[in-house]
Each structure stands twice: as structure tokens, then as C-alpha cells.
Amino acid sequence: MPADPHRQTRPSPHPPKRHIFINTYRHLIMLLCLGPLTLAACESLPEPSSSPSGVVIHPPPASPSQPSLTFDSSGNLEFDAWRMDFARRAEAEGRKRETILSVLGGLTPMEQMVQTAAFEQAEFVKPVWDYAKSAASPTRITNGRKKLDENLTLFERIEQTYAAPREIVTAIWGMETSYGGYIGDFDAPRALATQAAIGRRKAFNEGELIAIMKLIEGGAATRDQFRKSSWAGAVGQTQFMPSTFLAHGQDFDRDGRKDLWSNPGDALASAAYYLGVSGWKRGEPWAVETVLPENFDYSLGDGVKRPVSTWIDMGLAPAAATEFAPSADLKAELFLPAGSYGPAFLLFDNFSVIKRYNNADSYALAVGLLADRLAGRADLVRPWPTDIRLLTSAQAKELQSALTRLGYSPGPVDGVIGRNTRKALQAFQKDRQLIADGFPTAEMLETVLIAANG
Ligand code: CA
How far apart are CA 315 and CA 319, in angstroms? Predict the structure, then answer.
């Protein structure tokens, strides 16, 4: 924080578009982690089996009743070597051999992931409002309100048990899987194993595989249920990663299963519980749209939390009559996702709680805006500036380079618009009596380039 809409990358056309609605950001994070498939990740892998057939040979099982810990070759020696090594480690830390075999047996690496990872590195950015607008589309609002009506009793019970309001939980449900309409058809172990074997975040993905094994051994879920996941390995109607499922999954109807896939009560209670343990504050808003006074000092959009009373003293006012009327002693930070060109928000602690679900400002913003519409609140007062042009990362490098030549300090010329670049741009704007919001548009780049080259 503050938000950085430039950190978003256009979703890949692979897999087909319907998948993109599931966890775009988790996918993105996963893809960035797959990243360029350098040899570094492979260097830590043990030597592949020397068996000419590719079948990994392993010492006989410890007990005659136990199956042998061996796997048919996937056809990829790197993958096979990782799997054998990981299987041994999983067994050493207490997982049952039959569980390990059921989770890892028959897997082959997902070639599509590797290809998509390469595509994702293309230098595109997607403005935050594209994401927010599609998240709170009329269809999703209509469907969400229908779901709230259909599950009235369930939501009343969930709200009695957990702090998070039904609209936020429903918005997450809608964002993650279109209210359970599409929960993914990837095999979670296969997706995670591919990333563990050839991606960068080996330890993370291995941890998720161990969590799946523990969930199966504990009877919370079955191996077959994990055949329906996003291609990042997130499962169920509210898209929990297996480790989050293990730590926070709820059996709301107490039937002995935590069925996040086909039992909305279990899935929604799990989401509500997770928001609760992440610190959701009952009765507090996630944000309030705000009108800024004339000649506002945009450097106050610096991520610092200040009491609402302080913001009011500075001339900020709610954009619309709001039922929240946040009390003056609550602290909030100013969030300017579109600089001086679009709506401004005062963000409360609950915004950060939504980010625990998915650590992207644009995700949390989309969930909050959708939840507001589900609750019957009006749309934003100030429209998004859909006509302004944002920078590609090549242009961001040009901006950073030009600001450096002009004597400002935007940090390294890396094409990533971070805090330093925004501050440097803001200083440039201030020096030239421009609106100093530090928000880099294509037009602003031209202004900076003219100054640097002239
Ligand atoms: Ca259950």
C-alpha cells in the first residue's frame, strides 16, 4: 500500500477465459513465481534415476503389508526425481505411504503452465478500474443478490457465528467462482507438483501438497475432491489453498466433512471464519468514497493511517450520504487508485482483512465495491477515468530514466511504478505547479520527456 495499479498484468488467454475469473491474482502470483524457468530451481533437484525405463526404483517397503513407494515415470525425469525425493520426505515427516501414492501417483507435469508462464511476462498493464468494473458487473450483482435471498437462513446463522458480513462473504464467493458456478477442473496435486518440481516456490507448493495429504488423512476431504481446483491449486467455492483449508476450513453442518466444493454452508462459513481470524471488525466499513477539497495535497495519499476527524479537518467529505458515518476516532488511510483522475477512498482496517484473502489492492477494492452493491448501496459517485492511458512497463522505464536525468530519485529503472517513482513524479509535478498526484499517465510521461529532453 498505497495501491499500485501498474503492478497488474493482463491475464493470459491461457487457460480459457472462464478460468480467469477464478483467482486472477493468485494465478498471477503463481505465474510470477514460475517465472523464467531458470536452472536455479532445477539445480536443487536430486539426480534423476538412472533406471533406463525411467521408473524410479526405491528400496522395499518397511512393512510387508505396505505398498511400495514407487511411481511410474511421468516421462519427465526432472519431475520424476523431484517426486521421488518429495515422497520420501513426506513419508519421513509422517504422511502415510498410501496417501502419498494416491496424491502423487500417476501425475505428469502440466505443460500448459510452463507455456503460459512465458506468455505472462509480456509487458502489459491492466488498469485497476477494468478489474473493479468487471468484478461488480450488473450480472454479478444480480446473481449475488439472488444468492443472498436464496440463502437467507444460512447467512443469518453464519453472521451469528462469525464477524464478517454476508455481503463481503458473498462478494468473495462471486469473485472467486461466480457463486460456486465454476470451481475449476484442474487436479490440485498435479498443479502444485508441477510448480514444486519446475517452478520457483518449491517449498510453498510442497507445503500445499502436504496439506492435501493431511486433509485426506484427517477425513476432511477425499483425493477425488482435489481433482477440482483452480490451476494454482485453490479449491472449493471460496477457493482456499489447501494449507488455508487445513488451518481454517469449517464443517458448518457438522456432518464430519469440510466440503468446500459442493456444500455452500461449509464454503461460506470457512470464508467468514477466515475473515474473522484475519481481524474483521464487525460493524466497521471497509472504505468510504471521499471527495477531496480544492488544491488538495496529494502527498497525503501516502499510506499513513490518520483519524477520520483529521481527514475531516483537512476538508475531506463523504462522496455520498452513507449509512456508515464512520466515527471520527477510527483511523483510515487515503487510497487514490486513479490518482487525481478518479474516485478517492478512505480505507479502514477491514480493507486489509480482505487482502488477507488475496493480497492485491485491486482484489480487495473489487470485493468491497461488489459487496456495497450487493448491500444495496449506490455505485461510486465519481466515475473511473476509463479514457486515460496508463504506461506500459517500457514507458515506465522511460519515465524513471527521464526523472533521473532531471535530478529526481525514482529508484532503479525497472519499469515498475513503486512508491519512489510516484514520489519523484510528485516532486516533478510540484516544481512545475501541476496537480501533484504522482500518478503516471501517458500524457504525464510526455510532459516529463519534454522537460528532460528540452
Ligand atoms: Ca460439512
Answer: 12
